[in-house]
UniProtKB/TrEMBL annotation:
Occurrences of domain ABC transmembrane type-1 (ranges): 102-296
Family the entry assigns: Belongs to the binding-protein-dependent transport system permease family. HisMQ subfamily.
Organism lineage string: Bacteria, Bacillati, Actinomycetota, Actinomycetes, Bifidobacteriales
Originating species: Bifidobacterium subtile
KW Transport (keyword) present: yes
Stated name of the protein: Amino acid ABC transporter permease
Major location (coarse): membrane
Keywords: Amino-acid transport, Cell membrane, Membrane, Transmembrane, Transmembrane helix, Transport
Protein origin, superkingdom: Bacteria
Length: 336
């Protein structure tokens, strides 16, 4: 039995009752327009032959051109080139990748990155707390979300709530995907922040406390800013990983307007039997991640070498006058 999308459903030989029931059900959803609505919503690029009669098993299905068949008689190099670098297929997929896939990928990554950074900072502070009721939950949370594969976490959060009758955002899986990515990112970012905070010399905190800062103010104004500065390269690396992990959201069955780069490339490849659209999606990912990678290297080099001062000798550094005033007052007191 075939449906209009060219999908075959296997039925055991001799089980005519099941086959007829499946055909009948498929005919009903086609007749009332449900199938056509779902087809346009989830597979907008899949063309259906006009002569195809769905559900009944009659008519012919236009099958995607096989790479092997299309390259029969050609060289191996030529077949590989046509399968992965068909510029016509890339040109056809480019508008959807640019207008739909790229914005959705960036929305997923940036939103999840912001939420994950906030949660990660809270986890880092809780993990360094002297109170067990804060420290242990933070450690358990971090161990769980760092230990589980990202795909498992996304499926558990994106699909697991529905059978329990919990619909946080209705049937829309997009916010659940952002939530899952945020929780995953927060576990890693929390550890990055924790290592950065612990790398700050304890004397910094002690000096801040000695001049009257409270414990919270010392952490917020002195220790955390220095710790964040030291782990900026690791944070950008984590954001790059988040961009790539956004491709796993396709597990949740996004709508056509919600598809990210990988899903659009995979759909185009499945519809055409050619992998060129998927290669183009990969080039989009590289266009985002490669500049960020070089930016990370630049930040890391600047932090290691130290930023050179480019100020003239007669140019005052902010706060320099106050520092000289304090030093002058101290010298006067000493002379007296």
């Amino acid at each position: 039995m075939l449906d209009p999308g060219g999908m075959a459903y296997a039925v055991a030989p001799g089980n005519d009752a099941l086959r007829e029931a499946m055909n009948k059900g498929l005919d009903e959803v086609i007749a009332d327009g449900t199938w056509l609505k779902l087809q346009k919503q989830y597979y907008p690029g899949r063309a259906i032959p006009k002569e195809f009669v769905p559900g009944s098993g009659k008519g012919s299905v236009e099958k995607p051109t096989s790479n092997r068949a299309s390259s029969a008689g050609g060289s191996s190099l030529g077949s590989v080139w046509s399968a992965f670098f068909d510029f016509n297929a890339m040109k056809k997929a480019f508008p959807d990748l640019l207008k739909v896939g790229l914005p959705n990928t960036l929305i997923l990554a940036v939103t999840s990155g912001v939420i994950g950074t906030i949660l990660g900072l809270l986890l880092a502070v809780a993990g360094l707390s002297r109170h067990r009721w804060l420290r242990w939950p933070a450690r358990v949370y971090t161990d769980i979300f760092r230990g589980l594969p990202a795909a498992v976490t996304i499926l558990l959060i994106g699909v697991g709530f529905a059978p329990l009758g919990i619909e946080l955002w209705g049937p829309n899986p997009y916010p659940l995907g952002i939530l899952a990515l945020s929780l995953i990112a927060s576990a890693y970012i929390g550890e990055i922040f924790r290592s950065g905070i612990q790398s700050v010399d304890k004397g910094q905190n002690e000096a801040a406390r000695a001049i009257g800062f409270s414990s919270g103010a010392s952490m917020r104004l002195v220790v955390i800013p220095q710790g964040i500065r030291r782990v900026l390269p690791a944070l950008v690396n984590q954001f790059i990983a988040l961009i790539k992990d956004s491709s796993l959201i396709y597990f949740l069955g996004l709508l056509a307007s919600q598809r990210e780069l990988f899903r659009i490339g995979a759909d185009a490849a499945a519809n055409s039997g050619n992998q060129s659209a998927l290669v183009l999606a990969g080039l989009f990912y590289l266009a985002i991640t490669v500049p960020l990678t070089h930016y990370v290297n630049h930040i890391d080099k600047r932090l290691r070498d130290g930023r050179p001062m480019k100020q003239d000798s007669d140019e005052q550094v902010p706060g320099d006058a106050e520092a000289r005033g304090i030093a002058g007052a101290t010298d006067s007191e000493t002379q007296k």
